[in-house]
Structures are given as C-alpha cells and as structure tokens.
Write a structure and sequence with these properties.
Helix content is about 40%, strand content about 25%. By secondary structure, the chain is of the alpha/beta class. Among the domains are: about 75-145, Roll (Ubiquitin-like (UB roll)); about 150-280, Rossmann fold (3-Layer(aba) Sandwich), CATH 3.40.50. The strands form 3 sheets. It has a 9-stranded mixed beta sheet. Helix 6 runs parallel beside helix 7 (about 235-250). The protein starts with 16 loop residues before the first helix and ends with a helix.
C-alpha cells in the first residue's frame, strides 16, 4: 500500500515580504491620497502639457477662449447704451463728452472707469468725478464742480480760482464775474485762503474794496476806491487789518484824505496823506507862521 501523505511542498499562507510592504504602504493615508488623487492629476497635467506643446493646439485653444469671452461680453445685459452726466453745468458736460468719445452701444468690459474718472478730473472745473454703470445699460457720471471764489489777474490774463487756489476757468473779461473779488499779482493763487480771510476781515468796507495785490509773493496790499491802499505785513496780516478796521470804526480813518495806511510794522502804523491834504497842511502852517506876533 502507498502512504497517504503527499510529497508536494506545503504552501505558506503568510504574504511575501514585498506584498507585506505594499499592504503596509497602502494603509498609509498619504500614499492612498497620492495614488487616488495625485497620480490622476499628474497624468492629466502631462497630457495637457503634451497638448499645449503643439503651437497649433495653443492657437486653437486661445481662439476658442477669445470667442467665448466675446460671446459673453456681447450679451445684452453687459451692453452700455447711454451716458448720463449729473451735477455738471452745460459747458462742463460738453467738455466731458468731448474728452470721452465713447461709441455706444459698447460692452461694459471695454470701459475703463478708473481711467475715465482720472481723465475727467483733469478738467479745471471738476473737483471730483464718480462713475458707475447702472442697470439698463446706463453709464452714470456724477460731477462735483469747483466753485469759483476769486478772479486772479496776472500778466494781463484773467482766471477763476476756487477757495483752495485751483483754477476753475479762464475769463475773457472782468465783467463776466464782477461779483467775485479780484486778486492781482504773481503768487496770489498760492495764498487764496489768506486772501479770503482778509476780505472777510474787511467786511465793514466791502463796498469800497477794489482788490488785493500780492506784493513780492509774500504779502498783500488791500486796494480801496479813492486810490486808498492798506499795506499789510507778511505775518498776521488779518490781525493788522482788523486793527485798521477798528481805527476806522472809532475815528473814521479811511474817510479822511489818506492815500496809504502802512501796517507793515503793526506796532508803528504809518499814514500817508494825499497831495491835496499835504498842500492844505502846508498852507495852514504858513498862515500860522505869518500870524505869529
């Protein structure tokens, strides 16, 4: 009889060393993430790189992207058909339309609102501009204009200035704005706030004011009618002018036959009489001399 045992080697149920290591590696979360997500991404990126490496493929893709963008930008909800300007005078509105030659209808994607705003604010009369696109395809431009506060005359030219000394517009004639005070001289535009403060201090003689003259780009002369002039100091001119107004109220100083009130040294004001007053004074002195015993 033959023995019941087989001569074939028995199979070891334990995994091999390589299989064991692979199983252990698969149990690592990072390895599973790399296999499940990283490997497909690498394959996709490699395929895309191979595809884009061909010039004709890149050109075709760019053309498709451009066509898609044009189709989106040309949709009716993105089209601007009208421009509305608010807060601007007719002349300023005409200037804005002239410097913004927009052909409507136009896609809102083709409008650079920031560049348009900066260009509008380059206009002398515009202090601030706000642009936005309203629903319904309307480009709304809100304007805050500079308010003229004085007329500046220099080298024979006339300009309107606002309260900060910014140019608002050019004047052809002083008669166009007789309601505004006149500033004369080089450098007057850089001291408009001080000039307005002086005019406020001279309110009691407002009807007699002819203008303010900038002298040496450092101080002011207040010019009144009857060729009277108040020469103000470089420092604290408002205070010096208030002293003159107080003297005028107390003693009617400016109603006398005086041509110049020199306040350049406030502690020692000087008065200059007119030629007629000087001649009368000489006559009085001569009469007194002749009548002496």
């Amino acid at each position: 009889m033959q023995p019941l045992t087989s001569s074939a080697p028995r199979r070891d149920p334990a995994p091999s060393r390589i299989a064991y290591r692979l199983q252990r590696l698969w149990l690592t979360p990072l390895f599973r993430l790399l296999v499940r997500a990283g490997l497909p991404m690498v394959l996709v990126a490699g395929a895309a790189s191979w595809y884009l490496a061909q010039p004709e493929n890149r050109e075709a893709l760019m053309a498709q992207v451009a066509e898609l963008r044009r189709s989106i930008e040309a949709r009716p909800e993105f089209m601007v058909r009208l421009m509305v300007i608010e807060g601007a005078s007719d002349s300023v509105a005409d200037d804005i339309r002239e410097i913004l030659p927009v052909d409507f209808p136009v896609s809102s994607f083709d409008l650079d609102l920031q560049a348009m705003r900066e260009r509008i604010e380059e206009l002398d009369a515009v202090a601030r501009a706000d642009l936005r696109i309203r629903s319904g395809g309307v480009l709304e431009i809100r304007i805050v204009e500079r308010q003229p506060a004085a007329v500046w005359r220099v080298h024979g030219d006339l300009e309107l200035l606002d309260a900060e000394g910014r140019r608002v517009a050019v004047l052809e004639s002083r008669l166009e704005r007789p309601d505004l005070p006149l500033l004369v001289g080089v450098g007057a535009e850089r001291a408009v706030p001080e000039a307005l403060a002086l005019l406020e201090a001279a309110a009691p003689v407002r009807e007699r004011i002819r203008g303010l003259v900038r002298v040496g780009e450092r101080r002011w002369d207040l010019v009144l009618d009857r060729d009277q002039r108040i020469m103000l100091p470089e420092r604290d001119p408002v205070q010096a002018l208030l002293q003159v107004m107080a003297l005028n109220e107390a003693q009617e100083l400016l109603a006398r036959d005086i041509t110049v009130v020199d306040m350049r040294i406030p502690a020692r004001p000087t008065l200059r009489l007119s030629e007629t007053a000087i001649e009368e004074l000489r006559t009085l002195r001569r009469v007194k001399t002749e009548n002496r015993p």
